[in-house]
Every structure is written in structure tokens, then in C-alpha cells.
Amino acid sequence: MSRYPELDEHIKLLKQDENHMKYFRQFALENINSDPKYVKKVFEHLLELVKEWNYKSAEHWCLVYIGWCENFTNNFLEASTTHLIANEFFEKEQDVEGIITTCNALLSDYLNLGEIELAIRNGIRGIELANEVKDECNLIALLLNTAETYIESENYDEALALVERLRSYNYTIKVTDEVIILGILSKISLNDNKLKEAYEYCNKALEIMEKNHDIIDREELMGTRAEINYRIGNYDEAVREFEEIIEMTGRNNDPYFKIKTLIRWAKCYYNLGQYNFSKAKLLLVINSERLNDYIRIRVKAYELLKDIYIKLGEYEKALEAFKKYDEYKDKSNINHSNLWLSVLKYKSAANEAKAYKSLYKKIDLISEIGRKITSSLDLEEILKSIHEEIEKIVDTDILGIALYNKEKNMLNYDFFIKDGKRFQKSEKAINDNTSFGAYCFNSKKEILINDIVNEYWKYIDKSGISEEKLRRLSTSVIYLPILMNDEPIALLTVQSDKKNAYTRHDISGLKILASYIAIAIENGKLFNEVNYFANNDVLTGVLNRNGIIRNGEEMLINNRNCSNSIIMMDIDYFKTINDTWGHHAGDIVLKSVAEIASDKIKEYGSIGRYGGEEFLIILPNSDLAKAKKIGESIRKAIEQHNYPIDNNKYGKITASFGIYEFVNIHESLLDGLKKADQALYKAKASGKNMCISYVEEFN
After folding, report:
1. How confident is the model over 134-152, as pLDDT tens digits?
2. Which CATH number fits domain 545-698: 3.40.50.300, 3.30.70.270, 3.90.226.10, 3.30.420.40?
3. N or C: which end of the chain has fewer CB within 10 A?
């Protein structure tokens, strides 16, 4: 019995003539939107038959539509692999229609995988071929899909140029094409903050869909309209629309679009400053079982979650979210390289293979170096890694990395190595007209010099550099700006004592690497910032409760056989200060006391804000006598200091101290804290402004 009796006659005709595959291609186009699973089963059955009949062209057309079915059910990686196999065959056979069709398919696959470069590459290839052979139908599809890819990568001008091309030529635009065009225009207008215009485009597109009973991309358009409603203040309408989209994705069993919609919703709340609502939506994304299938979306989710926790002041959670973001970013980079390997694997035609192998070899080397550079979150480790890896690809007698200090408006050469030796940090003003680095940073242009004596004048003021200084400079130099969102954040220089050491190819390789370096530096800075706030008190700058407790526990683990002490310090009459002078005065006192105490203990231990006006001081390798001496020095300094609490009025502050030395190696930090707290209570009860040790309290 036939598996698909409704198609028996056409299967017989296909067996007689391979060209009858055109019927099944049309069958796929008519049915794939409504039932991609059914279409996939049909084409998998056809694939078995045409392989048996040795119909190679039909075999690869089957793969095209099996790939589209994978795409329609959000299995984008499987879709791209299937389409690559078909594309390779059509390239080899010079089947232009097949090449155009698979370029369009790969464009969609890569767009959904977040591989914008590969998507645009296939889009442009398909557009060029479709234009040559005047294949209007595929040309329109490719122009629209490429425009949507540009929208996804936030290249709105390029997207608009493609839409204008479509409208200015005398193309036959179908109703579904017009809906897509209106959707693209609505996003461009939204980006330009032309909210009324964006709203009108959305409504018009949805009206056309309603009239023609077409539901393709309806959720996407509704999501755009919901975003517009948030921007113009129609919050109830926006919420209603987002809720309807989520309900629709549930009915359609579309977890991919549900996840994308929740992220979009979370961003709307974030932009409104409603961070808890944003977090709630984002946690629904992160807890979704299907999120594992979409690494790029996971990266976006954790990046936004990290930003939300920073805004909420939950720095420990921000740090955890950042670590997750970095973990999945690394996996995303590996996937990126694997996709390029797939391209290489299936591009087997001689000329294509040669070009792709050369391209991939370069990309793979730089990507591998990039992954190593971005694998660390410690800024110092990042800088060392950059040096080690760059030495592998260019001649490097000198390597320097300068980070931009915005507050000082200076370039800080945090990392400068000559002949393998690290030099001390130096600074350069970015308005120094004798500095190659300043020129590079300000102009955002690279410098390539292979003969310093004869070429230096192109970049710096001749009168500002002596012949003696010129002779000390390296003969060949490269300076490269490191950009993030088209703004310079740092610069890289490699230098050689050899003449003509560098080429434009070296510049190209280093420019690709610079994008990794930019990400690594920003990640390192952000990690340091988030890590700082996760462990430090925002007001005083000293360690927070968790940070100081961690230090105390580490002290007891690492110094078991030594004398270890702690001090509990409490500002006297702090509530009176707040009630009399206000919380601003209280903040001044807290910051000043923390600064005084930090200065006194910096050689001996660490200090943290334990809570309110109470501070904990950790003193490893300090016995009770030493701890009491340190406590007394802090007490006197606090007492003698003048505190500017109100308009040139200065007040006097005192503090009380409870001191404890750990005498039993089995005592926990909590045991010690209880005893230090009892000593502090005794100091408070005995008149304040004094140091009492736990031993004295019991004597």
C-alpha cells in the first residue's frame, strides 16, 4: 500500500521524468507554511525513491525542502547543514536556480542562528545571480530576507536601501511581500523614533494579513507594535499584545518565538526602568528547557540579566549572570567556528575549496587566538594572553596595549613589553601631537610604518620630535585602534627593529583580532566592576558583609597555626547623627570612618562594612596585643578627625571597638564574631569611645 496515495500519480510521473520534480517543489511551497512536518515526511519518502532511481538533481531538491521544513520548525543548525549539501551540488553542476534557492535558504538559516556575516554573504551571492538571470521571484525574496538580516544586525540604512530598490524598480510585489516590506519599514521607523509612522506601518501590515487570511510573521508584527505601544506610553495595550503573542506561540508549539518575544518584552520593561518586571520575564526565558537549543539567545538573555542585576544593585547575582554570559559567549564562538568548518566541508569544488580553505585557515587561526584571549575575565591575564598569542602571527620586538582613562583623558599603557621584558606603566595625553598612539586613537585609523625615519612625519608633528628620539624608535610599527561600538576604548601597537617588517595582511589579521580584544577588554573591565560591587560596599568602598566574612573564613583556613584576631567597630550615636543632620551627614561619616580605618589597617588586614554603622576588621597574623594597638590607633584617628556634616559645620565622632583573638584552631569565624560582639557591647555599655577585648570583658 502506498504511503501517500494522494501523490501516487505524480510519483509515477517523477519516476518517468526527473523534471517532474517541479510539481513537488510547487507542492512544498503551497503546503510548508501550514504543515511543515507533513511536507518533510513526503520529501524524505521522495528522497529514498530518487536515490534509488539515481536522480541526483531531484535528490538535492528534496534536501532543499527538507532543510526548509527544519527551518520552519526552528531546527536551524540541521537546516543549514542540509542546505549546504544541496548548495555544494548546485554550485558544482552550475545549476543557477538551485544556487539562488539555496543561497536564500542559507540566508534564513544563518540569520536565525545569529550568524549575520554568513547570512549576508549568501544573500549578496543570491541577489547577484538572481539579478543576472532576471529571476524576479527569487530576487524579491532575497532582497527582503537580506533586508531583514540587516535589521537584525541593526544596519538600518542598508535595509532601507534594499527596500527602496524594491519599490523603485517595476517588480511585481505580492501581498505577502508587501507585508514584509511594511514590517521592515516599521522597525526602521521605530529605530528612528518615528513612532507614529512605525505604528501606521504595523497596522497596515496587520490589516493586509487579516484581509488575506495570512498569519505568517503576525507575531513578529504584533511584537513590534507592542514595543511601539510601550514607547508611546500605551502600557496596557502593549501588555495585552505581548500576552496574546505568548498565547499564540503556545498554541502553535513555537518555543523559539516565545523565547524571542519574552526577551523583547523584558527589554521593554528594562528601557522603562522597571527592572523587576524585566527580570521576571527574563527568568522565564532562562528557565525554559528549549533555551539550550539556542546558544545565541542564551547569550543575549544572560547579558540583559546581568545588566538588570547591576541596576537593582544585586551585584553578586550580576556576577553570576556575567559568568554565565561569558560561558555561553565562548560556546557561541565555538559554534561560529564550527559553522565555518561546515562551509569548508561542503564546498568541494576546486576553486571554491581553495578560496574557502585559505579563508578558513586565517579565520580559524585568529578565532582560536580570539577564543584564548576572551576566555579570561581577569584584565591582567587578558593582556598577557594578547601578548603570547600575537607573537604567533607577527614579528613582535615590542608590544604595547594602552587603555583609555576617560576621567583623566589619558592613554594608560597598562601593558608594554620590549624584548620579552615588562616595563612600568606610562601615560600619554590623547591631545599629544607627538604621539603615534594619540593620532591612532583620535583618528580611529591604523598606522603602518616600515621605515620610521622616512615615514613618521605623516602622523605626528615633525617639530615635536628630536633626531635622537627618532633613532630610539622601532623601525617598523603598527598602531591599531581597538573599537567597541565604533568608539575607541584602547589601542594596540606591535613594533619591530627590522625594516619592512609588516604588510597590509598583518593589519587585516590584527584588525580581526582587535574585535576579540575589544570584547575581552570590555568583559574584563565589566567583570572587575561587577566583581567589585559584588564584594564591596557601594557607599564606603570597603568590603561588604559577604566580602569581609569571606576574608575572615579564608584567614582561619590559611593561618590555622598563627595568631589571628578580629575587631568589631561601631560608630557611637550614629542614629542621633542621622536624626539631627540627616542621612547625607550620616553617609559622610560612614565614608570618612571607613577611609580612616582602611588607612590604619592597610598593612595588617582588611575591613568591611558588616551592617549599618558597624564594621568588621580582619587581622591575620596578629595577636591580641597587636590587634588592640591597631584598634586604639583607629579609635584615636576617628576621634581627632573633623567631619563636614553641614555647610561648613564640622562635628566630632567617636567609635567603640570589640576585639577578639582566636585561641582555638577549631573555632569558626561565627564563634569569634559572637565574642567580638560581646566585647563591643561591653565597650558601648562602659561609656563608648573605647576598645575592649573579649578576655578583658570576662575578667
Report:
1. 999 999 999 998 999 889 8
2. 3.30.70.270
3. N
